[in-house]
Amino acid sequence: MSLLKKIMKKLLKIKMTVETEEASMNFMDHLKELRQKLIYSIIFFLIAFVVSFYFSQSIFEFLARPLTSILGEGNGLIYTALQEAFLTNVKVAFFTAAFVSFPFLSFQIWSFISPGLLKKEKQVSLPTLIAIPFLFLLGAAVVYYVISPIAWKFFLSFQSSQADSINITLQAKMNEYLSLMMTFIFAFGLAFQLPVILLLLVRFGVLSIQQLVSFRKYAIVLSFVFAAIITPPDPFSQISLALPVIILYEVSILISRFLAKKKKNEQTEDDDD
Asked: What is the pTM of this model?
């Protein structure tokens, strides 16, 4: 009898050892897969950076067009430090590569986590990964085609070249203009992620539509606080960011109501069946 117990204990110990080794192997396999996907993402980013640096001058000219079109021919941007133009092109290449690489990185993340997701979770996460770069691009387009032309005209209105006053003329530097432009782009790009964040919170039950409606007045205040932190310290920039954030908040409420109504109708149809 004692011999049988010893054999059973030995078999149980062997079984636990095998299960531990299998779990360890599965964990190591996941780590290897994650490392491989990170390596692919880094390689893709480096390739995108090299290509972006080759076209960095053209990309910068495109970013500067809202200002240079207002200044007119013969007027442009300057640089005062020997390395400033080169470093500005490096920054342009880095920002461009990061933007271009994000969809590839999102795909790598999706392919890594999707096997462990449920069907409903996949239905939520995949549209989210698609919506994030799209909304960021939409925010950048609003900055480039709508906000920046109005903002630059407003700032340039402070120039003075009258005979009876001091001659005040803009001499915009490359790095300062790029920093200002990228600040606007990233601020609006992040602000345009608000519908995605709110819809996910509603979808997973963290917030309800009633709470979104009741928080509206606080959202308006927080929109101006967010704009004051992110944008340059002038009222025009802050208002130009706060208003779209408020509009996006209202859009999020409308979409949440639509999705909730759609879900309720689907549940009603299932109950009828």
From this structure: 0.76
